[in-house]
Amino acid sequence: MFIISLIILCLASGCQNNSNQQEMIKQEVIDTEKAFASMAARSGIAEAFIYYADENAVLLRNGILIKGKTAIRTYFESQDLTNARLNWTPEFVEIASSSDLAYTYGTFTYTSPDENGNNVTKTGVFHTVWKKQSDDSWKFVWD
To answer: What are the residue ranges spanned by the domains of the chain?
Structure first.
């Protein structure tokens, strides 16, 4: 009976450690998402998206897939984002059991001037898939 109790205790402890580890990883992803949003506000939308993109990242913009970091850079170079602002807040994160993939979603607000110089604000929902890199950082693979 003692051995069975010890086994159950060890298993329960392992489950708790795994749960704690998953929570720590979730916090890493949330922190990365917040740093991404902060960089977009501080340094510009294009710079932030290029920095946080995985080499094989994919963006979905206006019904078109933009595949790879080079194509993402080219896409943003073609956009006039001079007075545009993008703000977002992650509201949910889930981590794969492998701990190397995650996804987030939340709400965003995008404000940019129209052709008359009047600010137009759009709101919506974002969904981002994150991949852990070899240096333990997180980069997005889908946005």
So the answer is: 2-142
Q: Return the exposure string of 53-62: e unless at least 16 CB atoms fall within 10 Å of the residue's CB, then b.
A: bbeebbbeee
Domain 2-142 in this protein, CATH class? alpha beta
pTM of the prediction?
A: 0.85
CA dist., res. 98 & res. 132, Å (int): 10
The pLDDT tens digits of the residues spanning 68-95 come to: 999 999 999 999 999 999 999 999 999 9
Q: Are 77 and 50 in contact (CB under 8 A)?
A: no
Cβ atoms of residues 105 and 111 within 8 Å: no
Summarize pLDDT for 105-138 with one digit per residue, the tens.
999 999 999 999 999 999 999 999 999 999 999 9
What does R_g of the chain's alpha carbons equal in angstroms?
Answer: 19
Pairing of strands 85-95, 119-132: unpaired
Structural contact between residues 106 and 5, judged by C-beta atoms closer than 8 angstroms: no
Q: Are 49 and 69 spatial neighbours (Cβ–Cβ below 8 Å)?
A: no
DSSP annotation of 14 reads H
